[in-house]
Amino acid sequence: MLEKYGKAFDNKAILRTPQWLKMQSKNAKQKAKKFAKExxxxxxxxxxxxxxxxxxxxxxxxFIYKECQNCQNLFLSNPLKDLKKLYTxxxxxxxxxxxxxxxxFTKRLEHIxxxxxxxxxxxxxxxxxxxxxxxxSGGGENLYxxxxxxYEVVGYExxxxxxQFSNEKLKGDYVxxxxxxxQNCDKSLLETIKNAGIIxxxxxxxxxxxxxQVLEFFAQNMQKNALxxxxxxxxxxxxxxxxxxxxxxxxRHLIPPFHLNIFSEKALKIxxxxxxxxxxxxxxxxxxxxxxxxxxxxxxxxxxxxxKLSQLSNPIQKxxxxxxxxxxxxxxxxx
Length: 335
What we know:
CATH class: Alpha Beta
Mean pLDDT: 93
Shape: globular
Keywords: Methyltransferase, Transferase
Order of helices and strands: EHEEEHEHEHEHEHEHEHEHHHE
Protein name: Class I SAM-dependent methyltransferase
InterPro entries: SAM-dependent_MTases_sf
Number of helices: 11
CATH superfamily: Vaccinia Virus protein VP39
GO molecular function: methyltransferase activity
Strand content: 15-25%
Largest sheet: 8 strands, mixed
Organism: Helicobacter turcicus
Radius of gyration: 19 Å
């Protein structure tokens, strides 16, 4: 199994200025307050292991994250009853407007997509099936990177503006509109799942109310030896700790009502696709140290000191990642 810890990260390189970070925090607050008015569920047990031994971990605006004492999973205990309200739109606006930028696409391609896709390609280099399916393909940078390596690519995305943006970048009709519904799966999507050699599910599983059933669905329908790659927010981590203590500064990681689960590795082993999926690759990394800096009100007041601390982020973060405190996890499963 291929294992990696730590991932170099530079906020400035992907245009995340202090002003941008503060605006994202403000936007996260506005969205949480907007959706707080919607009808909600009330979960009494962990959605992963079903244990009722849970304790409150963080309250972020009107939303409460609880921690399972059995599997250490963090879950949103009062999610919206109708989750589709979070993601559907008429194409005139996007829930992810910040990604609709040519300059940011180029930066994300170089600093985020290419390292991820390269990691997966290293594991898949001996696989003959070169069909790469990305579900929840966002702005298309992952598909772009995979296409450049010679893969045949197909994406599915529910956000119309992201879909249009990514197809412009890919120069073709590579991304189709769709939202994974395992109870009534789109025929075209299901056929692609059955035929794909690699299926990526980056930053999607945490948005779904039924992660166990979703992984089992993939395991049942994938080809033998095909790869399923998930990227999820991870707990325990420094970021979880910071978000809980500075809940009014949240802009990533614990993002209610969008992130329903922040997965522990124990929880992901419980999911495991009904025993049909084995882990062949793992990459743990994070941004917890920078989250700690950004949790202070005027974190960039002393700009010189802020820059110096930021430059120390990667070596400090790698220590955290190697000591079970990473806040992101990529797992590569093989059927």
